[in-house]
Amino acid sequence: MVCTCAPEEHHLAERLLAEVYERLSGGSARLQPRPVTERTFLTDAMRSFHHDFGVTLELRCEQTFAVLGTDSTGEVTIVKSDQAEHGVAALWRHYANNAGLH
Questions:
Q1: Who's near 78: CB < 8 A, 6+ residues apart?
Q2: Which residues is 65 bridged to in the sheet?
Q3: Rounded-to-integer distance, Cα 11 and Cα 74, Å
């Protein structure tokens, strides 16, 4: 759960976003490097999920957000978050770390 209820939790969530922006900006074997901004984050993350990890993404919203990633084997990984962007970033970092992506 990526929570932003308290100031320290919010700060950690924002650091997570900054880390993922930087890592996504570096590109990959399949994607060219390019600056990732607030405006381009979701598009860039979705391309990376597809091209780098073979993962489809689903967003659900009730009281909090659930970000679901489904890989090519059908395995689903779920991250819950107060803000959708933080959940997408946490899930991207999970797949990137597992794949050894910068």
A1: 66, 67, 68, 69
A2: 61, 81
A3: 33
Residue 55 lies in a domain: yes
For residue 79, give its domain range. Answer: 7-99
Total domains, the chain:
1
Residue with tokens 């932003």, as numbered in its chain: 4
Tokens for 51, please give them: 């091209």
* CA separation for the pair 31, 24 (Å, rounded): 9
Cβ proximity of 72 and 51 under 8 Å: no
Q: What tens digit of pLDDT does each residue of 54-102 get?
A: 999 999 999 999 999 999 999 999 999 999 999 999 999 999 999 998 7
Q: What is the model's pTM?
A: 0.95
**Among 73, 76, 24, which Cα is nearest to 51's?**
24
Provide the angle, in degrees to the nearest 10, between the axes of the packed helices 41-53 and 84-99.
30
Please name the residue that has the structure tokens 């990959």. Answer: 28
Strand ranges for the chain from DSSP E: 56-61, 65-70, 76-81
